[in-house]
Amino acid sequence: MIRVAWAQIRHSPSRLLAVLLAVVLSAMMLAGTVVFQATSTASMATVTAAPLRPVDVIIDPGDADVKSLKPSWAEDVLAKANVGGKVRATAPYYAATVTAYGSAARGTANVYSVSRDPSLRWFGLESGDWPASADQVVVSRDTADGLGVNVGGTVTLKSSDGTKRVVTVSGINDVRFKPMTGTDYAIYADPSYFGEATPGELFVKLDDPSDIDAVTERLAATARADGVTAVEGSEMIRQASAMMAGGSTQLTVIMAVFAVIALLCAMMVISSTYRTLIAQRTRDIAMLRLIGAKRANIRSLVLSEALITALAGMIIGALVGAGGGYAAMVAMGQAFGGFAANPFLLAGALLLSVAATVLTAWTTVRHATRIPPIQALDGAAQTSGDDTDTGGRAHHGRILRMGFGAPCMIAGIALLWAGSTGFHMPIALVGGLALALGLVLALPVFVAMLMPAIGMILSACGLPGKLAASSLTANARRAGGTITAVAFGISLIAALSSAAATGTATIDADLDYRYPVSAALYTPDNSPLSDKVLQRASEITDARASYPVRTIAIDHAPEGAKTTPKVLDVIPDKAAGTFTADDGWHTGISGGTPVALVHPRYMSTIGIKEGDQLTITIAGTPLTVRAHASQLTESPELAVIITDSQLGSLPNAAAIQPKLKTSMVWFKTRPGIDRAKLAGQVNHLAAADPNATVGGGIAESNDILNVLNMLLMLSYAMLAITVTISLTGLANQLALSVIERTNEISMLRALGTRRGAIRMSIAIEALALTVIGTVIGLLVGLPLGLAGVKAQIGGMTGQFTTRLPWDQISVLIPVILIAGLLASTIPARNATRIQAAQGLTS
């Protein structure tokens, strides 16, 4: 039968095009997910392991606090172990975060130490020389381009305590990836740059690599006695890679769930397509039965065609999916480890798509085996699908589907609720899969039960509507399956959109709570900002407004250990409404005492409550205020805050006013503004004053939202494939409807029905299926997305904010409706080509 099946495919390859497309798309998603997971893991391993590859042994502080260790702690371990004769080279490892100022920009940078011994250097130079002193550095090419410097240029590095150092770029390295540090730039310096700082680790290179086990054991024993650790470099690489690989697990799991759901959609499309094929080949199959073919032969023929098509689709899908998954990683700049894929996992995923295709074909092949030989004589297209499966068997099947599908849906909803309220993503994912399975089983039956009512509504559209209603009602079960496929695609888009909108809103709300000041430009030593910066502060277009803040050091405050405020901030009256709208701060005087903002953690430390008095000393003058708790006092440093009018009402204001300095400017983002754009504008402004430092929540928000955007880009690409599969199923449903109604349409043509009316009936049928699928998809997808994002991040913040993606929905609905109409184009064209006499000669 393989030879016969191949001959059938060669004779009419277009008949299996829809099956091939569904297999290709599902195999693409499965292969793409496998390649994405493996390539991202390999990339993270490469980034993490690169600095450690030349290292044989690492002396590490372990659980000890580096600040509590003396600068020579690692060298002391090495000396006590008495392994000097086996050591070729050592290199202390330092790292520090600074603000880097170049000729074109400024930004945060990590400064790493680079070994003086070539055997412990993990990168080479693209140009220039290695740093030979504390005032020379090597930078990566993207850092050089970002800061606008080259070999021989200078960069100003400012530490958190305000110390500035001007260094010369001695070389540009050949590193092609950015270390995952959350900073803008990467800079590499000679160990002397770090002065008397305590190293974080000591890298050890041995003369003979075969001594690694023995040397590590001795070093580990000595290190344990000193409260630190020593491990092999390869073991540290393994631990670091495993930790970093865990960062992609959530994204991989979500992509895998999408891939499985897409496979379910593909199976529904394949089932619909095979029913169409069986209807088209009624006479051929009946002729085979007439000349002696047994039912087993017909079954083998159909399954052989499915197997050949599945294998071809698997190969195409594997190539396109693997290439697409890797291309996506390259486009995101995350393919540092090169192409990677687990061959067994990839083979298993692709064989799953083949098995799903053959299994789906097997579930429909019984319709082909039931075609009687007598139909070879009249050639009438057999009505396929479960709609003709009359009697107790069909009723029993519907009961089974509903009986199993409804509990799955209920269980899925319960698990989603439990996962979202308990903030447990794995439970929510299991709930999503259970809900999907329940919808696959029960939704077609439920929609079929509603078809008579839907048909009555469509009948109000005249003759085209009555024709569409007749087709949908006669094939209610098949229409239900098509609606389910469309609903799956829409629900996934809706889920992702609502998750993205709610996730973004929650992140913004959480950052606004933790960082009431979206961005702050300030001087660490409270010296005045330059006039140039203050004049240009109003040019920040992505901020609601800029507010200059005058500050003065607090001479004395009640002792609160690390939480003692050091600064009095005097903010404009307008800023109070902008930054403390949710604090309930009523600026003014209470009993002759200003109501000032104080951090709640500090209030708890010194034992005062809301409304209690707090006395601080400013410019040698005691100032008593009533405390009002606010997170605002932590932006960018712990302070006590009053307004201009409150200060002006004080009897000693004249002694304080002249000593205030405008050392800060606060910015608040406008709603809906990209925080990354605000960060860029503030950083550009900061370049005008080397004393200025940028603070606030913009840096953290950029990192979080960048991860979210990466998730969205990948997921939307995968969902586009799912929707394509769903619309292919819609086109199949309409094509089968046209085939089965050939006699009906030819009779209508003979009675004078115009082609436009027939074309309109197909379009109405397509719109009805699309609209119902879209409504169901939105009803399922929107709460599904909310439950998923709440399960993922709801437990991380008390600022969970629900937001529905109305903008995306308003665009999605017309796009889907247009796509549904396009899916009806070819079936409608075929219907209008049916001649009036065709029903008489069929």
UniProtKB/TrEMBL annotation:
Occurrences of domain ABC3 transporter permease C-terminal (ranges):
257-373, 717-835
| GO MF entries | transmembrane transporter activity
Looking at the record's lineage, which domain of life comes first? Answer: Bacteria
**Gene Ontology CC: one annotated term:** plasma membrane
Chain ranges passing through the membrane: none
Provide the topology term for how it sits in the membrane.
Answer: Multi-pass membrane protein
Q: Which UniProt keywords apply?
A: Cell membrane, Membrane, Transmembrane, Transmembrane helix
The record's annotation in InterPro entries points to: ABC3_permease_C, Macrolide_Exporter_MacB
Q: Where is the protein situated, by its record's location annotation?
A: Cell membrane
Q: Which family does the record assign?
A: Belongs to the ABC-4 integral membrane protein family.
From the Swiss-Prot or TrEMBL record, give the protein name.
Answer: LigH
- This chain's source organism reads Bifidobacterium longum subsp. infantis
